[in-house]
Amino acid sequence: MAATGEKKYHVGVARGDVGEYVLFPGDPGRTPAIAKYLDDAREVAFSREYRTFTGSLLGVPVSTISSGMGGPSVAIGVEELSELGVHTFLRVGTCGAAQPEIKMGDLVIATGSVRSEGTPDGYVPLEYPAIASLDVVNALVEAAKAARAPHHVGVIRSVDALYSDLVPDTMPRAKQLREELEMWSRAGVLSNDMESSTLFVVSRIRKLRAGTINLCVDELGAGEIHHLDPSYMDRMLRVAVDALKRLIEHDRAAKSK
Question: How far apart are the first and last CA of the chain?
Fold first, then answer.
């Protein structure tokens, strides 16, 4: 447990610098955009891939902290931030579609993630599922419905090698990769990202809450990631912030009982 004023080695923040609720994008450039949705937000740290702004929602301290890309940096972030009192992580990221009905700009809310990347293997065997927290999933679904935002809810898949998924035909084992991608699609996997399974596994082991909402930036078979109109990202961020407000209200009601 970190002493008051002692900054954690990687994330570069100390107890009191961050709220107990965290909006967790991958891109450090996305945290300033998220901070605009918080009250009185200020930048408190930029260490490695972890850029942190802290403000408030409904009078409760809330932070947005970038995780960087992939499982290793997510795991380090969750571990260090949990020692500073963070109990709720909401990933706001991007994904590639694995189903034809998921279109560019749609939102994907994960109930769980296939563990096709390696970081959680250092914690528990593959038999341990990567499951999102029910409270967070419910809040995200309610917020997406309230915003009338096109969204899909279900199991996603997390990977290490982005380009093996994106352009499998350029890889040494192209046939096997194509067959694997087709298999996961037939199994009903909605989309692919690089962080969610690590987030879910580490958070559950540490008795924290975690969920994911992703913006689709790559349709099935496109083989290309697109820069969308900023309004699509804004829509996802509004849904995520509304979901976090719902969680804060839920927690307040539970404490008052």
Answer: 30
